[in-house]
Amino acid sequence: MKLLAIDTSTDYLSVAVMDGAKAIARVHRMVPRSHSSLLMPTIDAMLRKAKLKLKDIDGFCVSIGPGSFTGLRIGVATVKGLAFCTKKPIVTVPTLDVIAANAVTSRGIVCVVLDARKNKVYACIYRTDGTKARKVSAILLTGADTLLEKLKGYDTVSLVGDYAERLAAMASGMKIATARWHPRPDVVGRLGCEAFKKEKFVSPEKLEPSYIYSKECDIKGR
C-alpha cells in the first residue's frame, strides 16, 4: 500500500511517501509562510524520489490540526484536489496525535501543548506505555494556567510542543520533562496507514481542518 502523507499545520512542511508503515521518501523542513508555493513541488519531488507517479498512490493522509489556520487550509485543499483527480481515498490524523508520538517512549503522561495565541494553548493529555499514546483528555483550547492545574494531579509529565518550554518554566514544583515536538511526516504516514487499514475514509467533500475556536478568536467559526 502506497500512501502520500502531508502535514502543513506548523511552520514545517512535512511530506512522506509511505510503503505500508515505512517512509520511502520524506522531507521535513521549516518554510514559514511558504506552504502554498512549495507544497506541490515538494510532493512531486518526493514521488520522484520514491520512483512513483501520482497514479501509483493508493490513498492520501493529511494532518488536520489544530494548528496554523492558513497552513491547515493549504494542506486540506491540496489533498482534496489530489483525491478528486485520482479518485483515491483520504484518511486524516489529528496533529496533536502526531506530535505526541515524539515522546511515546516516555512511559507515563505526555501533554502536547501548542501556542494558540491570545494567551491560549491547544493541548491534549496522553498516557503512554512505551509504544503507543492513548488520549486521556479531549483536545483543549485553554489558558496555560488552567492547563497546569489539570496537570498537577500527575507525578511526572513530559511536555511536547512549541509552548512546552514556556509551560515548563511556569510549572513550579512539578516534575516536568520536555521533548522534541515537530510533527514528522513518517508519523503522519504511520498513523494514516493504521486508519487506512480500518477504512476510516473521509470524502473530499467532507474533508475539513480541525479548527478549535475561542470566543475571542478573530476568525469566526461555524
Please give a structural write-up.
With 222 residues, the chain is an alpha/beta fold. It folds into 2 domains: 2-95 and 183-197, ATPase, nucleotide binding domain (Nucleotidyltransferase, domain 5), CATH 3.30.420.40; 97-179, Nucleotidyltransferase, domain 5. 30% of the residues lie in helices and 31% in strands. The protein has helices at residues 35-49, 69-86, 95-100, 144-151, 164-170, 185-197; strands spanning 2-7, 12-19, 22-30, 59-63, 90-93, 108-117, 120-128, 133-135, 140-143, 156-160, 175-179. Strands 6, 7, 8, 9, 10 and 11 form a 6-stranded mixed β-sheet that branches. It has a 5-stranded mixed β-sheet with strand order 3-2-1-4-5, sandwiched between helices. A hairpin with a 2-residue loop joins strand 6 and strand 7. Helix 1 packs across helix 2 (69-86). Mean pLDDT is 92; it is low at 215-222.
Which features does this protein show?
6 helices, elongated, 222 residues, 5-stranded mixed sheet, Nucleotidyltransferase, domain 5, 6-stranded mixed sheet, alpha/beta, disordered C terminus, 2 domains
Number of domains: 2
How much of the sequence lies in strands comes to 25-35%
Number of E-state strands: 11
Helix content: 25-40%
Classified by CATH, the class of the largest domain is Alpha Beta
The helix/strand class is: alpha/beta
Order of secondary-structure elements: EEEHEHEHEEEEHEHEH
- Give me the CATH architecture of the largest domain, please: 2-Layer Sandwich
Termini, distance in Å?
36 Å
Q: Which oligomeric state applies?
A: single chain
The name of the CATH topology of the largest domain is Nucleotidyltransferase, domain 5
User: The biggest beta sheet, please?
Assistant: 6 strands, mixed
Instruction: Report low-confidence residues grouped into runs of 5 or more.
Output: 215-222
